[in-house]
């Protein structure tokens, strides 16, 4: 397991406990292929990603959620924009570094980033970060977030 992500299992375990509002299927390690992630993201109301992400300032469309050491399996912003349709998605939570980041200085009409991609794919709401995140802090943050969220929906 990646030493930087040692608390991901605790985060996922916490989410599993919120069964009253989250229909879940967990993809871990080699089971988290790009094709599987795209398929499941399209069919669920909530999509939660825990792992590594990287923002590419020079080529924003190459910004990605890391699914594997094989770069071809990474879920890029380009793939999200071209291959993902999330009409059912009420919420996307991205528990990874810089997932809400955009380059405000890029010369375009639209600020491109992972959060923008998921919104354009149809998600109603996206939670991401604009900085490097700590694995234990995000595990606690999302545990409390989903606890509060499940209370609101009960």
TrEMBL record:
<dbReference type="Pfam" id="PF12770">
    <property type="entry name" value="CHAT"/>
</dbReference>
<protein>
    <recommendedName>
        <fullName>CHAT domain-containing protein</fullName>
    </recommendedName>
</protein>
<dbReference type="InterPro" id="IPR024983">
    <property type="entry name" value="CHAT_dom"/>
</dbReference>
<feature type="domain" description="CHAT">
    <location>
        <begin position="7"/>
        <end position="150"/>
    </location>
</feature>
